[in-house]
Amino acid sequence: MKIREIAGGLHFPEGPVALGDGSILVVEIATGFLTRITQSGRLQRLVHLGGGPNGAALGPDGAIYVCNNGGMEFFLSPDGHTLRPGPQPKNYSGGRLERVSLSTLRVERLIEQIDGRGLRGPNDLIFDSHGGIYFTDLGKVRPHESDRGGLFYVTPGYRSAQPIAYPLVTPNGVGLSPDGSTLYYAETEGARLWAFCVTSPGRIQQEPWPSPQGAKLLVAAPGNYYQRFDSLTLDSAGNIYVATLFHGGITIVSPDAKRWHHFPLPDIYPTNACFGGKSLRTLYVTLSGVGKLIAIDDWPVPGLKLHYAG
């Protein structure tokens, strides 16, 4: 399969969202923008969100909902070509869940704390069929400490949230199986993929001890490589596509976790992916280190149609 570059010149892009007109929305973590990329590759920086916009998703009202991690420091790698994220910056603006109207570009902060504790580094989100939102908070790293993360559920209305699993170690990508019965999340530091059984909206069945958080482990750092897991998406067969850092590419895991393989990509920071195009046969991937959005056409398995797709 051939890799096609859609656009370059992006500042650590993440959260790709395929729209109905063929354009793609991304967030640019390093500069705080929500950006639209046309089919011809033209960049339209729609609105400056500030902080560190991370995951993004279309909601039932047609607005874009964004996990904003509050910002992070960025550095150039020794080769001078790859942008890499670092710790919590001095101008950290606090984690939050935001709503952006695509018609007016009005930005609204929805949730900034849960149970009296401020969000630290919201990362990725997914809507369920009921209009609720599952999202991860990865937390922040500072010179001598790091936060414990969590997985949360936001009820429709988007003014309150409840913990699903807390505390967690660096929870990142989040997704739902095609029938909505399984909730997946990717753990960054250990390169692990975990699964919860969903019993009702915002509620899960927990595995017994020694599971550290009640989830079932699907895969753990497959292969003999240094790698970290980032965001994820699914195809229509229920396979999970995990953006894989350092061992740059996409790790594709079958629903029963009996099969997995690695699809290599030309960047050590592929951070997220989404399906779009005709019959959802195009896989779009953000190559964040080199600041590009790429497309892989004629993917053999169609993507999973999201509940509120563009």
Proportion of residues in extended strands: over 45%
CATH fold descriptor: Neuraminidase
Residue-averaged pLDDT, rounded?
96
How many strand elements? 31
Q: Describe the biggest sheet? A: 5 strands, antiparallel
Number of helices: 0
Helix proportion of residues, in percent? under 10%
Radius of gyration (Å): 17 Å
Domains, number: 1
- Morphology: globular
CATH superfamily: TolB, C-terminal domain
Main CATH class: Mainly Beta
CATH architecture: 6 Propeller
For the terminal residues, how far apart are their CA atoms?
25 Å
* Structural class designation: mainly beta
Q: Segments where pLDDT lies below 50 for 5+ residues? A: none
Task: Provide a quick synopsis of the model.
The protein has 310 residues and is mainly β.
Which features would summarize this protein structure in a list?
single chain, 310 residues, mainly beta, Neuraminidase, five-stranded antiparallel beta sheet, four-stranded antiparallel beta sheet, 31 strands, 51% strand
Give a verbal description of the structure.
This protein is mainly beta. The chain has one domain: Neuraminidase (6 Propeller). It is 0% helix and 51% strand. It is built from no helices and 31 strands. Strands 20, 21, 22, 23 and 24 form a 5-stranded antiparallel beta sheet that branches. A 4-stranded antiparallel beta sheet has the order 1-31-30-29, with no helix packed on it.
